[in-house]
Amino acid sequence: MKHFSIIALAALMLTACGPKTDHIRILATSDTHGMFYPYSYALLQENPTSMCNVASIVKERKDDCTLLVEAGDIIQDNSSELFLEDDVHPMIAAMNQIGYDVWITGNHEYNYGFKVLNKIIPQCKAKFLAGNVYSPEGKQLGNDYVIIKKKGVKIGFIGMVTPNIVNWDKLHLQGWTVTNPVEETAELVKELRPKVDLLIAVEHMGLENEYNTPGSGARELAMTCPELDLIVSAHFHQGFTDTIVNGVRIVQNQGQCRTMTQVDFKKTANGWETTGELINVADYAPDSACLAVLQPFHERALAEATKVIGRVEGGDLIPADRFPGVCNAYLGDHPWPDLVAEAMKHYADADIAVAFAVPTKATILDGQEVTKADGAVIYKFANTLYKLRMTGKQLKTYMEWTAGYYQTYKPGQPLRFNRDFASFNFDMFTGVDYEINVSKPAGQRIENLCWSETKVPVEDTDTFTIAISNYRAGTQMLNPGVVFPEGEDLPVILETDIRSDIGNVRAIICHYIEHELKGVITPRCNHNWRLTGLPADFTVEPDGWGH
Q1: Is the domain 307-532 a CATH 3.90.780.10 member?
Q2: Which numeric CATH code is attached to 19-300?
Q3: Which residues are CB-neighbours of 63 under 8 A, at least 6 positions away?
Q4: How far apart are CA 425 and CA 119, in angstroms?
Q5: Distance between CA 399 and CA 356 in Å, rounded?
Q6: Closest of 261, 139, 141 to residue 200, by C-alpha
Q7: pLDDT tens column, 2-40
Q8: Nearest by Cα to 467 from 379, 351, 357, 376
Q9: Distance CA 278, CA 57 (A)
């Protein structure tokens, strides 16, 4: 047996990760959106990425100088809503199994209100941060920072969420205060910088400010706080590790567990230097131990997703696209969004209903059985149902805004979409007839707007009710300066979270199919709107949003 001197033994121990290490690694995820198991319950097929795959990455790349960070949006989507009342949510079970050190809320954590959130938070073993969200009593939802020591190195983490949650979940946040995270972080930097070796902001916001809201972008954060060593951003699902702003590295993951970011800090004579890597999660097989822990949740989600609720008879509900990469619902009235609007209008007892077309690669054809999983194909997001009161003038302004999804058509060219306008912001309206003249400039496109039943033109002074998603209501309708100019009257909320006993809009659609349509979906198109200003043989250029 070989004998080592004390000096040699000490040197050997220092080579890996000694008492005062010169190496720190950060592994971060965000926007994992319910991908606890490598399976898509909406598509009823295996998925190449999940928290189980992330577990394999961590096992390979984690050492004693590694910290794991989650930057929010974990408990929404991929059937994870089924487990909100469980003692342990499967996403939290996965994080505990993997061994996360820090996590913060994303915007979607607020979708279900504080009763659910306060049940979820204590389940997680990681340090929970939510420093800019304050209760009506002035108490922070979570700590604003935590300092973790690794091999003699003190790493400070600051955790905040985008202030736009007050728009998206306005009703859940009534009485609560959400402060500017950049301002909050700047104050903490003054306090923490002398106390730590590394200072990292984990903030659920994109690179740029969103909706022109101050303090909602990581670029502004870096410009304000150059003392930060790293910003772990989130929310926009963009995926990058090499963005340097004002000397601060900013990283961000793609959504649905598609990537994991790795940032390595190396101590040099000039201070800490960083390198970043965007890890492709699909390159790693799922970890068997994590699979075993999450198997019971998977079985429950699969059983619920495969429950048959109806059958399509008499035509295709979602036929194949007419133009590759372009959903048919963007080119004229379509039975798919009409079904969505029909269900929303019914349960809200509203005069008008609004459906937005989020294209998927799935089809739902004549004769096909429809399962609960297909509810996520018909309606992608876990929004809830609101009812607003509007005027005819407000409706016209809203319709012109959403018609901004199209570029102005020029003869001899394909129809093009506005790549700066998200496809999920294009809405279709049931209860009124109208035309969108795409040859006209934005703001002048809505023509022949009238009430569907009477064919009487909609007047500016008309008042009526409209069924709409909580996302559209909070983000655009009730947010001054987005759709309606600052200073103008906004629509009035009449009812929120309609039929919460059933669930979100997706659940409401499934309930409508099962109970109101008695399981028989006969695709119907009311042909209440169309595009004009185009030749009959027009072509279309894909919208650039990956659809």
Answers
A1: yes
A2: 3.60.21.10
A3: 16, 17, 25
A4: 32
A5: 12
A6: 261
A7: 343 444 434 444 444 446 899 999 999 999 999 999 999
A8: 351
A9: 12
